[in-house]
Amino acid sequence: MVTNADVLRYLESMDFPAPKEDIVREAERAGAPREVLQALRGMPPVDYHNTEEVARSAKTDLAPDASPAELAAKARDRTHQRVARHMRQI
């Protein structure tokens, strides 16, 4: 499975904020494998302000040694849950 570290490795030169499409393009340009691209394509189509938001939204597994607290935090994170832009709190 793909971890957050695997995904972020291909986004080191990414300038933020950036939409999902630009993030996927940057990963393709950097030579990301198919699994990483799939994880990025699974993100909601919104603008991301930093790599932390990408890591939270990408369809990845946490590192194999992730604590139960880290697993629960990822499950609770609802930052980008396909909420219409006009309904998001700013």
TrEMBL record:
In this record, what's one Pfam family? DUF2795
**Which stretches does the entry tag as region Disordered?**
61-90
InterPro entries xrefs:
DUF2795
Q: Specify residue ranges for compositional bias: Basic residues.
A: 81-90
Q: What is this protein called?
A: DUF2795 domain-containing protein
Q: What is the lineage of its organism?
A: Bacteria, Bacillati, Actinomycetota, Actinomycetes, Micromonosporales
